[in-house]
């Protein structure tokens, strides 16, 4: 894990307050919709959808941009090495929709995704100079047996949708330590779960982060957090709200939280909710944001319950992956 630095950049309460006071009324309303306090717009990238002909033209324009962009080199290399896998995994329409049909931004997002995708899975190679085989991002494809075992522990998985039809991702940060798995293996597991959100009809999601018992030296990992944030910014998915759920009180979180919030940036920072207190208090507050009992139970029942819920998630993923293979 990355050592925590007490000189790391952080944001102060005064700076946060100034950010919120500078918001327009429409921005405040949008944040309320994003965090689930009001009905949400479930169409990523905005409500307008171009005609089929315009969509085809924009996809062609994205592909043309990817031939020219210097930052798309990893995409071009991957496409040359594994055209079937890369074509299947790159839903240009999803990238365009998320970027409000802006061709340049969509192409840049595709480029970011494939740079991270190849980097994260290349790290499993014993020799960094050896060519990395690009396998489908499925349970039986890119993930190894060890990574599937790590995934089955129930540290990260999808719960049922919230009341606004958005995916809900549960991430138990405090159960992940170097005794469980390496950072590299966990990044591959995180990428897989995030990728499953990308081919849903609605790619918006809420992240429930369990930080109960967060330990500064066991759990703080700046590199892991930075990579997670980069993955969210590269995949065609949209994080609408982050709930950080802790216990009745933690002096450690009061130290770490300003650093986390600085790393989040203003957009996510304004959509981050800190939930603390008893299990009952946290559950009741989460329900105010469009969540239900099924979203609260992972915090209350713990590891065995979460492994069972994760098993249901993985069973559904196997079914979807078989169906997708059958349609190819």
Automatic annotation (TrEMBL):
<feature type="coiled-coil region">
    <location>
        <begin position="14"/>
        <end position="72"/>
    </location>
</feature>
<keyword id="KW-0175">Coiled coil</keyword>
<feature type="domain" description="CRAL-TRIO">
    <location>
        <begin position="165"/>
        <end position="274"/>
    </location>
</feature>
<dbReference type="GO" id="GO:1902936">
    <property type="term" value="F:phosphatidylinositol bisphosphate binding"/>
</dbReference>
<dbReference type="Pfam" id="PF13716">
    <property type="entry name" value="CRAL_TRIO_2"/>
</dbReference>
<dbReference type="InterPro" id="IPR001251">
    <property type="entry name" value="CRAL-TRIO_dom"/>
</dbReference>
<dbReference type="InterPro" id="IPR036865">
    <property type="entry name" value="CRAL-TRIO_dom_sf"/>
</dbReference>
<protein>
    <recommendedName>
        <fullName>CRAL-TRIO domain-containing protein</fullName>
    </recommendedName>
</protein>
<dbReference type="GO" id="GO:0016020">
    <property type="term" value="C:membrane"/>
</dbReference>
């Amino acid at each position: 894990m990355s050592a925590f630095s007490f000189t790391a950049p952080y944001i102060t309460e005064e700076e946060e307050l100034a950010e919120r006071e500078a918001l327009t009324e429409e921005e405040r309303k949008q944040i309320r919709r994003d965090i689930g306090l009001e009905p949400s717009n479930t169409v990523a990238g905005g409500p307008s959808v171009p005609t089929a002909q315009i969509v085809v033209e924009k996809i062609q324009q994205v592909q043309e941009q990817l031939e020219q962009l210097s930052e798309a080199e990893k995409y071009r290399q991957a496409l040359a090495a594994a055209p079937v896998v890369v074509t299947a995994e790159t839903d240009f329409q999803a990238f365009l929709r998320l970027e409000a049909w802006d061709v340049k931004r969509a192409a840049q997002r595709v480029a970011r995704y494939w740079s991270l995708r190849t980097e994260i899975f290349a790290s499993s190679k014993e020799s960094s100079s050896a060519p990395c085989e690009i396998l489908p991002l499925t349970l039986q494809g890119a993930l190894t047996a060890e990574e599937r075992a790590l995934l089955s522990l129930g540290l990260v998985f999808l719960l049922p949708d919230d009341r606004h039809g958005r995916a809900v991702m549960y991430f138990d940060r405090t159960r992940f330590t170097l005794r469980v798995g390496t950072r590299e293996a966990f990044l591959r597991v995180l990428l897989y779960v995030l990728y499953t959100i990308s081919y849903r009809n609605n790619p918006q999601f809420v992240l429930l982060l369990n930080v109960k018992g967060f330990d500064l030296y066991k759990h703080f990992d700046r590199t892991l957090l930075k990579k997670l944030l980069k993955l969210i910014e590269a995949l065609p998915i949209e994080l609408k709200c982050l709930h950080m759920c802790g216990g009745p009180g933690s002096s450690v979180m009061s130290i770490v939280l300003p650093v986390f919030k600085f790393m989040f940036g203003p957009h996510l920072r304004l959509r981050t909710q800190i939930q603390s207190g008893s299990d009952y208090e946290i559950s009741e507050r989460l329900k105010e944001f469009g969540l239900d009992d099924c979203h609260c139970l992972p915090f209350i029942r713990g590891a065995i319950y979460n492994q069972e819920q994760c098993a249901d998630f993985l069973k559904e993923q196997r079914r979807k992956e078989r169906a997708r293979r059958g349609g190819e």
